[in-house]
Design a protein that fits this description.
The protein folds into two domains: about 1-120, no CATH class; about 120-170, Arc Repressor Mutant, subunit A (Orthogonal Bundle). The protein contains seven helices and no strands. The N and C termini lie far apart (about 40 Å). The longest helix is centred in the middle third of the chain and has 31 residues, at about 60-90. The protein is globular. Helix 1 crosses helix 3 (about 60-90), helix 3 crosses helix 4 (about 100-115) and helix 5 packs across helix 7 (about 150-170). The chain is mostly helical and about 170 residues long. The chain is about 75% helix and about 0% strand.
Length: about 170
């Protein structure tokens, strides 16, 4: 049985053959863990495969670096989130700490929330977190972010919409 590749997958295959070594070297300079660099390299090409349309890029390495930078940023943000959670967990008396299984589930939930909120602009994300985690009102958030109260309302609505979509899917 012969397999016929689409032009899309052929292009990604060519980019992989021609630029994977370069991308991996670039990632290894950015991250200490060789295995993580390998994973991020693979994830970069998986992202390309997942695109609906792909044309031959004029600057393939710039395209690959841009995708990889986004993945690196996500990796570092999730690592910081995990470290913050573990640091807070150390403040809880050992007898009150959740089981290792529960800790893992909580951390996965935190990462899912982080991915959800990452779709928002930085100010919308900050407004939503100030409101939901710190209990700040609209005026106080507006002052902290240097925006109007009506803009804060828009940011909070964007955050609520993201939560709604996560729970129930896109509204029809």
């Amino acid at each position: 049985m012969s397999s016929v590749q689409s032009p899309h997958s052929e292009l990604v295959g060519a980019l992989y053959r021609d630029h994977r070594s370069w991308l991996l070297a670039w990632l290894r300079r950015s991250i200490a863990c060789t295995h993580r660099a390998e994973d991020l390299s693979q994830d970069t090409f998986v992202r390309l495969l997942g695109r609906d349309a792909l044309t031959t890029p004029r600057e393939p390495r710039a395209l690959l670096a841009a995708i990889a930078k986004g993945l690196l940023f996500d990796h570092f943000r999730r690592s910081a989130l995990e470290q913050a959670y573990l640091a807070e967990l150390q403040r809880v008396p050992e007898a009150e700490q959740p089981s290792p299984e529960a800790q893992h589930l909580i951390l996965e939930d935190l990462k899912a929330i982080d991915r959800l909120l990452a779709r928002l602009s930085s100010k919308a994300r900050a407004a939503f977190l100030y409101n939901r985690l710190d209990g700040l009102g609209h005026a106080e958030i507006a002052e902290r972010l240097g925006v109007s109260v009506s803009r804060v309302r828009q940011y909070l609505a964007q955050g609520m919409r993201q939560c709604y979509v996560a729970l129930y899917g896109e509204p029809t």
